[in-house]
Amino acid sequence: MRRRVVENKTVNAPFIPPKMDARQAAFLLWQRDWAATARPNQIPDLVAPDGFVEMGFMAGRGYGKTRVGAEWLARQVYLDPLGFDSAVIAPTYQDIRFVCFEGESGLLSVIPPELIKAHNKSDLVIEMYNVTGGVSSIRGFTAERPERLRGPQNARLWCDELAAWQYDDVWDMAMLGLRLGQKPQVLWTTTPKPRDLVRRLTAPKKGRVIVTGSTYDNRANLPDVFFDQLSQYEGTTIGRQELYGELINPEESGIVKRSHFRLWPHDKPLPRFELVVMSLDTAFTEATTDKRSGDADPTACTVWGVFQHEKRANVMLLDCWDEQLGLPDLLRRVRKEMGVAYGDDDDSALVKPLFGSSKPLTSGRKPDILLIEDKGSGISLRQMLERERIEAYAYNPGRADKLTRLHIVSPIFARRMVWLPESAKHPGRPRNWVDPMLTQLCSYTGPGSVKHDDYVDSTSQALRLMMDKRLLDSVQAKKDEPSGPPPKPVRNPYAS
Q1: Distance from C-alpha of 371 to C-alpha of 374, rounded to nearest angstrom
Q2: What is the pLDDT of residues 265-306, one digit of tens each?
Q3: CA–CA gap between residue 69 and residue 103 (Å, rounded)
């Protein structure tokens, strides 16, 4: 191997012996051409010379991500003397075939014809010669069908446009099949979107390398008219995401902000709660299950305490959980939760995740209102609870959709009337069990913005009930002060 300078870059230029077979020569010429044209941050071996387990390319449109994935996968397949299988996963069948396989920067455009034995378009399989003269397979999978990844084993994966995958569990299924060879590897390429999967895969982890870049990095290979059109997106959120490859914090666009919440100091006794509301968002029907996994849909529960502070009513989150439960298990869980007492008789309340106070049931305050949405399994759950003499309040959202419901109660957050218990281990932050609910609530901007919205529904219906029942009006009048006429009832236009 000798070195030469191309466009002020030092690259490896293979020396081709005169007596070399056509496949070896084709491979070396292919690698020479790619090394001469690629940017250094497009070559994984240069980005991570010590190797990697997982590498992600998160960059703007036009960066050259597809070319990176195709070049890396094809090179690794050729250099594998054992001929282990590899796979490509893309959002749809069309993406696999017309982008990753047959596209301008896809596998068939970068692999020399001498190294391709066969290409099956219908089955999405490329058979490629490797360094020993054997044949290795590259199979394409669509992210629309996670179950297809249960059986296949692979030594390496290229996951394209990961942020556009329909199901996040495609990644988990793929990882469980990545078990061939001494060092299986995965490389993913995507324009970022604030999805749960993308946020999870960009978190620091041993063996994980993240490469970022913008559309402008590849300006030399893109037409000028394209960049003329891009000027309208400069300085916008879509421009930051689609051009500069920036992973936008989903909470930036949320209706509810983290800054809206207040923290109740961990070393300060909790206030006397005047009312405790337990709010449940249940699965749509008692038979509803995930068709792919067979698991029951999740049920979310939030518990809220109303108290007086600074001459006005305030609300504090006392508990929250989100779990996949069938109706019988949910019934048992609710029955147990209704016996939980939040707080002690001396007003030094204890807030604990899942099960509240461990004190005897005569201590603290148990939920005064059990709120369940008047739909599907919620109706069945209320009927079963009534047989056990546990009354539940039926919440009917009427015509208001999820986003409208959150908008209606958003002033309560904006006025900083909602409190979270502070962590004793991490002052200035809420307790750990609060975070899943807080993240979901602050990230929700409408249908599809978060994977699950159960906490959003549970929270909005609890606060809406408090608004409708005038539980969050100004501080109650003292006994020695004359009280005015009772407030006129406010009609709820969204409930039947």
Answers
A1: 9
A2: 988 888 888 899 999 998 754 444 444 444 456 889 999 999
A3: 12
Query: Mind listing the pLDDT tens digit for each residue in 48-98?
Result: 998 999 999 999 888 999 999 999 999 999 999 999 999 999 999 999 999
Instruction: Name the residue type at position 182.
Output: Q
Residue 276 in contact with residue 94, Cβ under 8 Å?
no
Q: How far is CA 186 from the centre of its chain?
A: 19
Question: The domain containing residue 97 runs over which residues?
Answer: 38-242
Q: Are 243 and 233 in contact (CB under 8 A)?
A: yes
Asked whether residue 183 falls in the same domain as residue 272, the answer is no
Same-domain check for residues 218 and 303: no
- Count the Cβ atoms, other than its own, within 10 Å of residue 388: 10
Quote the tokens at residue 68.
């990176």
- DSSP symbol at 475: P
Asked whether residue 267 falls in the same domain as residue 235, the answer is: no
Q: Which CATH number goes with the domain that contains 457?
A: 3.30.420
Alpha-carbon distance of 69 to 156, in angstroms, equals 11
- Count the helices and strands in the chain (H runs, E runs): 14, 17
Number of separate domains in the chain: 2
- Give the CATH number, domain containing residue 179: 3.40.50.300
Average pLDDT over every residue of 2-9 = 43
**Residues 38/70, Cβ–Cβ less than 8 Å:** no
- Which residue has better confidence, 293 or 17? 17
